[in-house]
């Protein structure tokens, strides 16, 4: 099935089976590897991207359903001039990543949160990222990084 996706401000026409998850299209067809494969069943958040500014688990949504949406991946988080997003700077400053496999999904979920709520409380941050799993236990540093970016 052929359709067009708008990703990071650019239109891409892809031709994949109708039920192909967005994650596979991003990684295998478009070469955008920021979103990670963790569980593949919508449980871990490693594959999080933004769809019209809200977080979306790209492993469980067929890409063919997302035509017309503005999709943003980790690669599209930085500014047009290439400057890192404030969240990316803050995650580095707080050394929020340990193995860092979860960090792309954390960044995208945090970006969705700050878009909706620029000054979230710690409790709101913890709630927003509750379903993004970090096996290293870096949650406290991740929360501090989001607070730093929101300050
Ligand atoms: Fe999509 Fe885990 S890989 S939620």
TrEMBL record:
Q: Name one GO molecular function term.
A: 2 iron, 2 sulfur cluster binding
Name the domain of life: Bacteria
> Gene3D superfamilies under this entry?
3.10.20.30, [2Fe-2S]-binding domain
The UniProt keyword set, sorted, is:
2Fe-2S, Iron, Iron-sulfur, Metal-binding, Oxidoreductase
The record's listing under Pfam families reads: Fer2, Fer2_2
Record-annotated 2Fe-2S ferredoxin-type domain positions: 1-77
State the PROSITE patterns in the record.
Answer: 2FE2S_FER_1, 2FE2S_FER_2
- InterPro entries found in the cross-reference section: 2Fe-2S-bd, 2Fe-2S-bd_dom_sf, 2Fe-2S_ferredoxin-like_sf, 2Fe-2S_ferredoxin-type, 2Fe2S_fd_BS, Beta-grasp_dom_sf, Diverse_Oxidoreductases
Q: What is this protein called?
A: (2Fe-2S)-binding protein
């Amino acid at each position: 099935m052929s359709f067009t996706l708008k990703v990071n401000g650019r239109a891409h026409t892809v031709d994949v089976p109708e039920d192909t998850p967005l994650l596979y299209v991003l990684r295998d067809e478009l070469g955008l590897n920021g979103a990670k494969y963790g569980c593949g069943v919508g449980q871990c958040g490693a594959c999080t991207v933004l769809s019209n500014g809200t977080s979306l688990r790209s492993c469980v949504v067929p890409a063919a359903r997302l035509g017309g949406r503005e999709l943003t991946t980790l690669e599209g988080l930085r500014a047009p001039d290439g400057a890192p997003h404030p969240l990316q700077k803050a995650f580095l400053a707080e050394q929020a990543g340990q193995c860092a496999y979860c960090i792309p999904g954390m960044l995208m979920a945090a970006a969705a949160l700050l878009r909706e709520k620029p000054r979230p409380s710690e409790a709101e941050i913890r709630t927003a990222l509750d379903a993004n799993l970090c096996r290293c236990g870096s949650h406290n540093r991740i929360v501090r990084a989001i607070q730093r970016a929101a300050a």
